[in-house]
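User: Please predict the structure of the protein below. I'd like the answer in structure-token form so I can feed it into my own downstream comparison script.

Assistant: Understood. Taking the following sequence of 379 residues as input:
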Amino acid sequence: MSAQPNLSGRRLKVLIVDDSALVRRILTELLSADPEVEVVGAASDAYMARDKIKQLNPDVITLDVEMPKMDGVTFLRNLMRLRPMPVVMVSSLTEHGAEITLDALAIGAVDYLPKPKIDLAATLGDYADELLTKIKAAAKARVRRYSADAPSVSSANAPIPPRYSADAVLPKAAAPRQFRTTDRIIAIGASTGGTEAIREVLTQLPADTPGIVIAQHIPKAFSTPFAKRMNACCQMTVYEAEDGQQVLPGHVYIAPGDRHLLLVRDGARYVCKLDDGQAVNRHKPSVDVLFRSVAQQAGRNAIGVILTGMGKDGAEGLKEMRDAGSPTIAQDEATCVVWGMPREAVALGAAVQVMGLHEIPGRLRALAESMDVTRSAAQ
């Protein structure tokens, strides 16, 4: 069963679970500065958290990854089996921390964010904005009861950085170029809930699927472990994308967590281009940047897919793909953890089809086969 709290205009109740008293205090101060949020309690370990959940009935929990007595992932697994609720993990941005956090997302955590940089007070304003945004999105997220057999589908006071469009990285072309004989491409964009949504799509695609390029909002420390994790469970070969890497059928290329991924042509080939330009829609990698490059370089030879995520990154780019002749798909509201990015794409008229996550792999296979038939007839 999925669950979505009904806040009915009241303040959002948050429970902070962290073994560090200093981190608990910082998170409490940052969250309490927002009049829409109430920190109802704090716990230093999983057993205290269990009691406070029963007593305080929070809407959202922030959960430390590494704690004494019981680690955060074990506690999360028990919680999502017995009483599913929105959880935002707080972890260190190390490869080890990334692996554990990816486990937590697979179990059903809605989102994650790094530990606050206590020694850099100047950065706390931006951190507060990210924290509050993710807590509020988590409160509206759909969470599902965890089982080992079924994966989860699962106004701030801080200054807000400027929002740039994809123009900051890749100017919009007057008309995309069309190539009758180019290979097919699948482009996927996702954010909150996306690591598990991407896993569900990729694991159901065969080894001869057209090359796939992916922009998932993810920190740099997470993108390498995420790509390795996907490679271990998919029939396709999965990489963290490298600059100049050729896009081949049967292969998947995931944008690094600190670079934009673009598709470019090199003669008759498609290759990956990494760009360290301005964050777009406050994200790097940006889905809009990837989709625009695919629209311009592949046009009707590409398929665009926008999955679960917070915000609107990717909606404009998916519309450009549709206008260029690409079949486009948006994940439906019922199966999204957060129906933000797909909702924006649907509202913009960017999605040719809207469907459940479980339907998307089959539709991709069918579209790829139909494009093969169309291309053969044209040759």
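That's the full token string. The chain has two domains: 2-144, 168-378.
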